[in-house]
Amino acid sequence: MSGRLNKKVAIVTGAGSIGPGWGNGKAVAALFARQGAKVFAVDRSEEALAETASIIADEGGECTAHVADVSVADEVEALVARCVETYGRVDILHNNVGIVDDKNVLETTEETWDKVMSVNLKSMFLTCKHTIPVMKKQGGGVIVNVGSISGIRWNGVPWIAYYTSKAGVLGFTRAIALDHAKDGIRCNALLPGSINTPLMLEPKRQTMPKPEFDKWVAARDTKIPIGRAGTAWDVAYGALFLASDDSEYVTGTQLVVDGGLIAQMKMPQRPAA
Ligand SMILES: NC(=O)c1ccc[n+]([C@@H]2O[C@H](COP(=O)([O-])OP(=O)(O)OC[C@H]3O[C@@H](n4cnc5c(N)ncnc54)[C@H](O)[C@@H]3O)[C@@H](O)[C@H]2O)c1
Questions:
Q1: Domain CATH for 116
Q2: pLDDT (mean) for 238-250
Q3: Could you tell me if the CB of 126 is within 6 A of ligand 1?
């Protein structure tokens, strides 16, 4: 395998998928491997991780699978240590793990709030805390934090903890970028829009009759200027740009991958004259 990430070592968190098909982290892991990276794939699901690792192996790529919960401090410390033990360095840290909770502020319990913050945001703090010293020592590296357009827009559903955690990703990303610019470390956020991954599709597929599900998918597509929801590959190619040397002058900012969704503004109809 050779390509834009030749000889790079990449940690990808959430490299599995919660259901059949391609999640964002799974596609990133596969694409990074196709582009020549040695992928250190992390997920809390052993089964999901095994599938990603076997896809990469079948394609002739290099991947080490490591089961860990990235919201737990000693598990993160151990995963970074194992990556360094295995490959000697970490060039790319792709922080992809994220969960959604479908509630407004009145319905959200303190426990759920803490869980979403912990999985979506504290996980990035922990991975950066343990990876940045390695990157500094080797003279640099790249960090990509997966946020969401839900971190910069209300998207019509009551996801209070998710919105807040994804807004936090942006502040965190800027601070990491500027605190470590002189260390040769770049850090950017990647903000997917409506992407057809198992995380988004499975809850609906499992609760709706097939014709209703198909209608829901089609209606969602028509709301997007490009005319379709995104795929995990759309997100993975954005991640590849941010992780590769092609973006060597890009840091502290965000890349939106949403088919034009948030660029549009629907004005109320003017009353007829
Ligand atoms: N799908 C979308 O429409 C969309 C839109 C915007 C942003 N995103 C973001 O993209 C990222 C990935 O989403 P996806 O749709 O591919 O999800 P996914 O559920 O398919 O994949 C996420 C993976 O993370 C793993 N994971 C969850 N918690 C973990 C933990 N604590 N430790 C280790 N692994 C853990 C899961 O097992 C799963 O394999 C998330 O951060 C999500 O917020 C997705």
A1: 3.40.50.720
A2: 98
A3: no
